[in-house]
Amino acid sequence: QVQVVQSGGGLAQPGGSLLLSCKISGFPYDRYAVGWFRQVPGKEREAVSCISGLAEEKYYSASVQGRFTISRDSRRNTVSLQMDSLKPEDTGIFYCAADGAGLHDCVATEFEFWGQGAQITVSS
Questions:
Q1: Beta-ladder partners of 99
Q2: Burial readout 62-95 (b: 16 or more C-beta within 10 A, e: otherwise)
Q3: Which of 13, 109, 111, 113 has its CA 20 to 30 A from that of 50?
Q4: C-alpha to C-alpha distance for 68 and 110, rounded to whole angstroms
Q5: What is the pLDDT of residues 58-92, one digit of tens each?
Q6: How many helical (H) and strand (E) elements, i.e. helices and strands, does the chain have?
Q7: pLDDT tens-digit profile of 25-45?
């Protein structure tokens, strides 16, 4: 049974940093894709960043490119999202998701297993 457990998040001031982590368990192999998605009230879940099984592919949305960094530690089955230079428009609930089919497209519908979500609030 695949489980996706998130940690991190919280409140930051504009220009600040936060770290989100996601521990994935239950896959019989390590070549699963992982993505981070953000949702705000009244809108669909949108992609923030995705990483392929061997980290050879990384995707960032235009709004976070250059500010966020996705990484994975295959020994610990953990994927992290380092968020720097945070802006108020980054506010939302961030979800980690994993899929065993590999990274085909960084969209929510491509991911089967989801974490519990974490609130990120960027405000002064």
A1: 33
A2: eebeeebebebeeeebbbbbebeebeeebbbbbb
A3: 13
A4: 21
A5: 999 999 999 999 999 989 999 999 999 999 999 99
A6: 0, 11
A7: 999 887 899 999 999 999 999
